[in-house]
Amino acid sequence: MRVLDHFAPQDVALKLVLSLGIGLLIGLEREWSNKDAGARTFPITALLGTLSSLLSIPFSIAATAGVLILVAFLNIRRLLIDRTLEITTSAALILTVVLGVLVGQGHLFTPVAAAILTTILLAWKTELTQFANRLQPEEIRSAVLLGLLSFVIYPVLPHRFVDPWRLLDPREVWVTMIVIASIGFVNYVLLRLFSARGFHYTAVLGGLVNSTATIAELAATLGDAEGRAEGMLVSASLLTIFAMFVRNLVLLALLSPASASSAFFPLAAMAATVAALVRFQPPTAGPAPELKLASPISLRRLIVFGVLFFAIEAAGTLAERFLGRFGLYATSLIGGCFSSASATAAAANLAARGQVSPGTAGIAAVLTSFVSALMNLPLIFRVPAGRKIRGRLFAYTMVVLAVGLAALVVEKFI
């Protein structure tokens, strides 16, 4: 290849502009943070990596070694001034020369994505530090356990039925466990971050983690409150129902998109009705109740969920074989009394395997949601303040279910 071909002006210009932009993106953030290396050092480092990559691999190695020497002098200077180290800036500077090398080799997505993620991590120093300080050992173990489930155990599981009745596919069960656990854990983290912003955030995010546990905790917390407790209990129950509808629809979309389209109208109609009812409740301004929900990921919880999910899925499979779709509907109604997420996931998996139609799975998920919404009522009625609002809350729940039933009829027959 001729030198002129290797250094085609258009190609070189594009790479120089890209590496310059990457360096500026990271460097400006460092400049705003009042670091010694900033808006000039980082772009120059990125350009160094790109130009060295255009020449040869030995030049790239030499350029990286030069940046390492620069980093050493930067930290020696900082030690002499105030006895601190520029660890984060040093790591960012080394990464920048590597990104420049990647640009010189013709990569686009990798260096740009890495530069954006690096800048986010640098800019969110305060938020990440505060979040890390609030972490509990249980939450760290939950994250590790989720990684273990997803990246260590899942790949070695067989993707086939391991029983003569074709009921248990280990990998399918594991995927469902990972999906539901991930949804719960993400919403648990969001609950920790945003619950202080208000009562509605607390109720919705808590409902996405575990609707039954949330309404039980809120009912116990608000049961001793005075004045606005009644209105807050109504809103709490409605908002957790809203969250449950949304979560079940998301599960369907992830596990069986065709079933989600079938259930979308009834679930969306019920969610919209709940939102309208909450809108017309008395104001609930003030400090949000603190939810003491445990992390949704623990070995005991996962075992219980796995057993429950498999039991519901196996019962649904057998019921559908012998009783047709009405057998699945009956299983979903019963499953909704224990875990609407498990029953919804079981119906979605049956549809994904082709054992039932997407429409049948969608109806099963809607029926499960009906039952789960009704299961909140006894939790509210048990607290002292709940006795004063039984009629109103029961009426609201019946209105929501009537809207869902009407939407289901429209979806099915019109």
Concise overview:
The protein is mainly α and 414 residues long.
Could you characterize the architecture of this molecule?
The chain has 17 helices and no strands. Helices cover 79% and strands 0% of the residues. It starts with a helix and ends with a helix. The protein folds into 2 domains: 3-129, no CATH class; 135-413, no CATH class. With 414 residues, the chain is mainly alpha-helical. The model has no long low-confidence stretch (mean pLDDT 83).
**SS elements, strand count:** 0
CA distance, first residue to last residue: 68 Å
* Overall average pLDDT: 83
User: Which runs of at least 5 residues are low in confidence (pLDDT < 50)?
Assistant: none
Radius of gyration, in angstroms, nearest whole number: 28 Å
Strand content: under 5%
- Note the main sheet: none
**How much helix is in the residues?**
over 70%
Number of helices: 17
| Total number of domains | 2
What general form does the structure show?
elongated
- Helix-strand sequence: HHHHHHHHHHHHHHHHH
Helix and strand content put the structural class at mainly alpha
